[in-house]
Amino acid sequence: MRRRLPLIALALLAAAAPAAAIDLPARKVGLWQLKMSFEGRNIPPQNIQQCIDAETDKLMNSFAGNLRQDTCSKQDIQRVSNTIVVDSVCQIGQSAMTSHAVITGDFDSAYTVKVTSRRSGGAPAPGMPADGTTNMTLDATWLGACKADQRPGDMIMADGRKMNVRDLQNMPGGRPPGATGAPGAGGSPQKK
After folding, report:
1. Cα(66)–Cα(62) distance, integer angstroms
2. Which residues touch 7 (CB under 8 Å, ≥6 apart)?
């Protein structure tokens, strides 16, 4: 599970900001509860809290935006009132991923991201449906101020483990696309 932690965190960053290429409103500063669930997959819901300030919220969005910029050949974005719809085609390894995301709500109290993705080509990932279709929902709720032992950028997993978004760029063996700093330059997940 320790090895999956950065992968879950990166997936959450990407899911939390699927439309970072447009000017999304900044999320309200403080502690956010994020619940990511997958329909029809044998994966328990992922519950993560994020303590953010303006700088770390922007950093999370830039990680997700750079990830998409490096891997996506298409990203059509439409905004209608308080709903944002994103259709994209991205290359992830040997697989092409076609996704449709709908973002509703506001960034001051609660928002929902619903993503339907279909994978084609490449070997299926463990736990993926045979037809390559995944339905993911991310529900985000603002909880209030960050707790005294939290610093902006902290992501607190359901099991109590903590890592900071700033440390992702220093993960051993690499960094998220577009991140600055030398790969492997320290910064490992912190245990609470």
Report:
1. 6
2. none
pTM of the model: 0.74
Q: Residue 70: how many CA atoms within 13 Å on its side-chain side? A: 13
DSSP 8-state code for residue 168: H
- The H-or-E segment that residue 31 falls in is strand 30-39
Assess contact for 27 and 13: CB atoms under 8 A. Answer: no
- Domain borders along the chain are 4-168
- Write the DSSP assignment of 38-96 as a string of letters: EETSS-PPEEEEEEE-HHHHHHHHHHHHHHHHHHEEEEEEEEETTEEEEEEEEEETTEE
* 71 SS3 class: helix
Taking Cα atoms as reference points, which of 13, 86, 106 lies closest to residue 52? 13
Q: With 60 as the cut, is the pLDDT of residue 13 above it? A: no
Taking the C-alpha atoms of residue 121 and residue 14, their distance in angstroms, rounded to an integer, is 21
Q: 172: phi > 0 → left, psi -120 to 50 → alpha, else beta; which? A: beta
Planar angle of CA 106, 110, 113, nearest 5 degrees: 80
> pLDDT digit string (tens) for 119-162?
888 776 666 666 778 899 999 999 999 999 999 999 999 888 99
